Amino acid sequence: MTEPSKSFSARSDAAYFVKAALVGLLVGGLATGFHSGLEFMFAQYGALRASLGSGYLPYLVSICISAICVTGAFLLVQRVAPEAAGSGIQEIEGAMEDKRPLNWARVLVAKFFGGLLALGSGLVLGREGPTIHMGAMTAEAISRSGNVTAPEHKGLLAAGAAAGLAAAFNAPLAAILFIVEETRRQFPFSYRTYMAVIIASILSAAVMEELTHIGPILLVEVSYIPVWSFLLLGLLGIFLGALGVFFNYALITVMDLFLRIPKGLRWLPALAIGALTGILLNAFPDATGGGEDLVHHLIASNYGVYALLLLTLLRFGGVLFSYASGVPGGIFAPMLSIATCAGLAFGVASVEWLPIESDFRAACAVAAMGGFFAASVRAPLVGVVLVMELTGAYALIMPVLVTCTTASLTAHHLGGRPIYEQLLERTLRLAGESVDDEKDKTPVQLGTRES
After folding, report:
1. Domain edge (last residue) among 168, 188, 212
2. pTM (predicted TM-score)
3. Phi, then psi, of 436 in degrees rounded to 5
4. CATH number of domain containing 249
5. Are 375 and 209 in contact (CB under 8 A)?
6. pLDDT digits (tens, 9 = 90+) for 287-320
7. Is 174 found in the same domain as 125?
8. What pLDDT digit, counting tens, does each position of 103-127 carry?
């Protein structure tokens, strides 16, 4: 290679990495704004309910507010950007395969404000889905500022998505691995694109941490557990593997069920789900919200097995109907809270029936988070690293590995498939695409992006 070509390559790399850095900085700021907006809404909504005292009044007010917010989020999404419903991860994967549109401005508006309304109402949805989708759309906007090749464009989309996840959970390493494991079919792997993902993830998480001063958001104090207890965690992983397969099946089934409602009346489920959420906010608040704050409370509490199983069921059903309602929101955080409830139930039962220390409860909760994630998303390495970064429980890296491995193997042998792969296929099917015929098509030119 001649010296001029080396110089050109270096300049080209630098220009691309500057774009990736800009993506990381902008996504970090956007995610911080979204996070702060949600925290403000949670605080104001909680203060309003508390000021109303006891009786029927808090229920009536909560029913009205949550129903209006969820319905408003649904209508906003339908009229501005229907692809902004749900987490958006499948939309990013579809765009990287040139099968889904990239209406970045509309998605940012619908995702940001629709997400504030939906999540602020108390739905069982996480903020990570919207930030991932908004991160990719921010990258899409930046990619239009200069000439980039198709692989570089897809690399920036992946960098934006990773930056969104890194900011949402303050977990840059898990965000990088998420791109490697989850988008391995779509990601155009090269030195340039891979480094872009790393740069964007680091800067996004750094901006979020600097502006919010939030460390590991699910920090859990744990100690080492005996090696023989890994057998119990293997059993827990088998259970979580089956639960993950069922979760994926149930989510798709509920979403398809809602499609049977006439199109002009599909706002009614959003209204009903919002109203029910308003009731639960007062009657059983642990069954509402994304669940980030719930993990600490559950581990520190003395819930019995049956109460934990009830909470598992309520949150399980809550995320199914919240996601299927057609509003913006992710499933990562709710999945972690469901796993915490189920893992704690297993741990409490183990401590009561077996000669094992009470610290095993917390170990089961942490390991279950990774196991359930691995079973549903089918990204076991991401599950391990995500849980480590979220909880800071590095003493449990081996137990979490055991649980994630057995859960993933169980899901595979039960015929389960990754949830976002199923969601993408469903999206393409509803859009009139044939998944089986895509290999025979000429890739769609990036001119499908909005001007």
Report:
1. 212
2. 0.90
3. -70, -25
4. 1.10.3080.10
5. no
6. 999 887 888 788 888 889 999 999 999 999 999 9
7. yes
8. 999 999 999 999 999 999 999 999 9
